[in-house]
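Good morning,

Both structures are done.
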Amino acid sequence: MSVVIELRCVNYSAPLTDECFSLIDKGVFAHAEDSQKSVASAYKLALDFAFNRGWVEAPKVNGRTGMICPNCAKLLEAQSSS
């Protein structure tokens, strides 16, 4: 059995843009074997990949914590600097 890990933008239920990575299926995926060690390793790999692709940690967006895709992050930054 394998485990699929997908990081989704916390804005996917109320996206800031039609270009939200989670809406257009450009999210971050990783595959793991059926063990805690493999899942932990795949999760770390997915996070590293996301950060390298411009994803950012969201302290609280729409009442949730998690990751924000690069497109939504740009819009949030523009809104906060206005």
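Second structure follows.
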Amino acid sequence: MKKILIIGTGFYSLGYDEILGICYSSILQWSKENNDNDILITFLIRNNTKKKVRHILSRKRKNELFFNHKLKVKIAIEENINFKEHSSAFLILPEKYHFYYSKMLIKNKVPIFAVKPFCFSLKENKKMLSLSKKNKTDIYIDYHKRYDLENRFIGDCIKKDKSNSYQIIINYSQNIKMMKIFNKWINTSNPFQYLGPHYLDLLNIWFKPKILKIQSFSSNYVSKKLKLKTSDLVSVNMKLKSGTKTIIANINTNWIENINYPMRSRQNIEVISENLHINSDQGYRGLDFVNKKNIFEIRNNNFTFYNNKTLSGYGYLSFKAFLDKIYFNKDNKSLASIEQNFFCSNVLDIVRKQLNEN
């Protein structure tokens, strides 16, 4: 039997209102695809309250009703967990808890799939890398935007491009209602730490850059009105170097103040070099591509797409890649390793320090 441990029972794990949780949904979908019901899911909770148990069971049923598929599930408090008996674990909780749980999992040789950003600092990342190598146990991070067809296309274009200078402009906003869903976590973080890592990961796999300079600033006009102790807008400007290539990257992250805005997020990335111009709308989906020979537009699949009792989209592909690696030993080189997270953690450390000083 495959024993899978899920640490975290919130929005991304089990869902919220009518939205299904991507973690548990992905395991259900993967189980259906492989016709494998010999799976036991354990949800770890820190406090065994009736309210918490009811929440998990209610969200579990909502996910399973959609897929018309069930798995064996149990709920256990941390003190009663035997980490060693699990064959994989999902860390679906804020990064400030990653180091604590990762140490226990790695020492018990349980491979980990964690939401971004992994751990709170570059120092913690390096400690976990050393521990994972010592115990020969892998840690992977859910950087699902690297599975997005548009981002893969952009990466291929950059790889073929002979330009020496690039301007990357990224704007990523989420609806302010998300601040209320994640309010406990948001108070310990900022929108760049929450929204920025996916695009830092893309910059890393596209360029493998060195950091030359970073400048960041923030505002808290909206969060003050909501009595939250966090920024609501963070803008980060970076000068990066990769061989002969110089990259100027600007990443703007913020909350959309209009709660009636129809989309959960706005995401746009623009890549400009001497030879090409790419503009990708990753909220409404679609990409415009221009170079010296071609002008065309492509369309892409969504982060998640629920249809006919199945789940697809690049959000699912990320979880599937991890499950395939652990249980079928499929060599999927698209998985994000802990080493590949160093660039992201380094940038987050610098930005956090600058924002605190300002």
